[in-house]
Amino acid sequence: xxxxxxxxxxxxxxxxxxxxxxxxxxxxxxxxxxxxxxxxxxxxxxxxxxxxxxxxxxxxxxxxxxxxxxxxxxxxxxxxxxxxxxxxxxxxxxxxxxxxxxxxxxxxxxxxxxxxxxxxxxxxxxxxxxxxxxxxxxxxxxxxxxxxxxxxxxxxxxxxxxxxxxxxxxxxxxxxxxxxxxxxxxxxxxxxxxxxxxxxxxxxxxxxxxxxxxxxxx
Length: 218
Fold this sequence. Notes:
Layout: H1 9-20, E1 35-38, E2 43-46, H2 49-55, H3 81-89, E3 95-96, E4 104-110, E5 117-120, E6 124-128, H4 132-137, H5 145-153, E7 158-162, H6 163-169, H7 184-197, H8 204-217
Antiparallel strand pairs: 1-2, 3-4, 4-5, 6-7
């Protein structure tokens, strides 16, 4: 039987109201980028000079992974975001590839998407639950560099998964990719939590699929 992941009905209804219905374009406050998402159109509006300067060079460009700086070493200990996630998610003490303990070589990870266990870090990818490309196409292209970097390195949006599953998923939303059935409830809840935190619009077909999964999880 599939484990139940509690997703309160009021939370899900709130999510639908926020992302699937037309709201006033200037309701609510500004986010950390100095702007806000117009939920009726899915477009991002700047309300500060800094925000306007940071978005003018990217608003008309297509998605580029280089614009979403990831795997940063935020505390200067030589372990980047990938290494720290591998360390925190391993079920045993990890071993390192180098004498400075910067690059993880092995450990033991349960891949949530496949349900398989992996012991070599080379078989593991760090997946962005909401892919960077997907976020870019659904409002994130207008974010400034700081917000893009925060999104790309936020632990709430990162999972250690098998390389095979990560490449199978690519930049797909829930309507085109779901992990193994045991993890689906937790997976769509992560999508809801991340989208709410970053005021990110979701495609209508993905909302429909999330609704389907949530109904089954209740």
